[in-house]
Design brief:
CATH superfamily of one domain: Large-conductance mechanosensitive channel, MscL, domain 1
CATH architecture of one domain: Orthogonal Bundle
GO molecular function: mechanosensitive monoatomic ion channel activity
Protein name: Large-conductance mechanosensitive channel
Pfam families: MscL (PF01741)
Number of helices: 4
Strand content: under 5%
Subcellular location: Cell membrane
Family: Belongs to the MscL family.
Order of helices and strands: HHEEHH
Length: 134
């Protein structure tokens, strides 16, 4: 049972998932600090110094913290954009590597393929031609 557990933990999918979660957690911290330290102050600057986190609507005795929701939405959009840019960069890098690894056509092989096709066409023509009477 211990051996099965070890195989399970060392499978590629489990390790990839663990790495993804760890990187995602670290990226979340970076995005939160970027959002709260740079982006939100810029938004507040253009909104006449309104601090979104303190934006609250009150109806009766109930408070609706709209500002924190708006701040979370902005943080979500920023996170999505950062992830999009990372994935796009990785895809571009992988595409370049795939193009470099592409097989370069061999001239000798192409010539041999052409000869094979000619021979196949000749043999097909010989069997379908009618004999000529003299």
């Amino acid at each position: 049972m211990l051996e099965e557990f070890k195989k399970f933990l060392l499978r590629g999918n489990v390790l990839d998932l663990a790495i993804g979660v760890i990187i995602g957690t670290a990226l979340t911290g970076v995005v939160k600090s970027l959002s709260s330290g740079i982006i939100m102050p810029l938004v507040n600057l253009f909104m006449f110094k309104i601090n979104l986190s303190k934006l609250i609507f009150t109806i009766g005795a109930v408070e609706f913290h709209v500002g924190t929701v708006l701040q979370a939405i902005i943080s979500f959009v920023i996170t999505g954009f950062v992830l999009f840019m990372i994935v796009k960069a990785v895809n571009t890098f992988m595409k370049k590597n795939d193009e470099e690894d592409a097989i370069v056509p061999n001239e000798e092989l192409e010539t041999l393929k052409d000869i094979r096709e000619l021979l196949q066409n000749q043999s097909a023509n010989v069997t379908t031609e009618e004999p000529v009477d003299k």
